[in-house]
Amino acid sequence: MGNADKVMGNFKGHALPGTFFFILGIWWTTKCILKYAFKKHKRTSYLDSKVLFHRVEILEGIIIAGMALTGMLGEQFIPGGPHLTLYDYKEGQWVQLLGWHHFTMYFFFGLLGVTNILCSTIRSLPASFTKLMLANALFVEGFVFYNHTHGREMLDIFVHKLLVLVIFLTGLIAFLELFILTNITVELLRISFFLLQGSWFWQIGFVLYPPSGGPAWDLVDHDNVMFLTICFCWHYAIAIIIIGAIYAFVT
């Protein structure tokens, strides 16, 4: 209670990326399981053809790039946003650096979307470039959020540390996918962390910026840290359940 004025940012700034990552996780789960099911049952219909999945990859790239552009514009042009101003020479200070952190994250995921489109339309480009760009985007996101909480309260730092943990784990798995054959288990493991990242962004929003207007969380209460440790595990359990439900539905 009474710590709301020490928290920088806003609820929408965490709900938006959370929604993006969760949608991507749901979509990648469905696509991954569909590919596995078609390959396993050796179906020869058009739905099984590479032509369809090739078109899907192009559409996916366009959607990812569109999501990233939406996030970049949102971070820049919301009321009180930096409006593409990085440094205010009159005031002699940086402008909304936390917003620029989010902008940088979106920018690299935008590059992922563009890479996806290029690899799907230019045959000379290896498809592995997309996985490389995904790993790069995640490592940049992890680096940005690792340096996102300097000078902030204990609970604020803790929830972001958990976010950084799952981001680097996701990036590590994406990087390892460059060196191993397509494996549904590894893909679903990476996707489960993506779903966890999406839901945890929402959790951070509810913890630091309660949208209902209720009392803010005590940012220096160790019991809140203990609870959120358990809550983080529950979020991952939900991610696994979602993947299981999609697998059962699709197959």
Task: Give me the secondary-structure topology.
Elements: H1 12-41, H2 50-77, E1 87-88, E2 93-94, H3 97-121, H4 128-146, H5 154-176, H6 184-208, H7 222-250
What does this structure look like?
The protein is an all-alpha fold and 251 residues long. It has 7 helices and 2 strands. It has helices at 12-41, 50-77, 97-121, 128-146, 154-176, 184-208, 222-250; strands at 87-88, 93-94. The protein has a two-stranded antiparallel sheet with strand order 1-2. Helix 2 (50-77) runs antiparallel to helix 3. The longest helix is centred in the N-terminal third of the chain and has 30 residues, at 12-41. The chain is globular, with a radius of gyration of 20 Å. Residues 1-7 have low confidence and may be disordered.
* Secondary structure: helix percent: over 70%
The average pLDDT is: 89
Task: Work out the radius of gyration.
Answer: 20 Å
Shape: globular
Question: In which order are the strands of the major sheet placed?
Answer: 1-2
Helix count, per DSSP? 7
Report the order of strands and helices. HHEEHHHHH
What are the low-pLDDT stretches, counting only 5+ consecutive residues below 50? 1-7
What is the CA–CA distance across the termini? 48 Å
Please report which band the strand proportion falls in: under 5%, 5-15%, 15-25%, 25-35%, 35-45% or over 45%: under 5%
Largest sheet: 2 strands, antiparallel
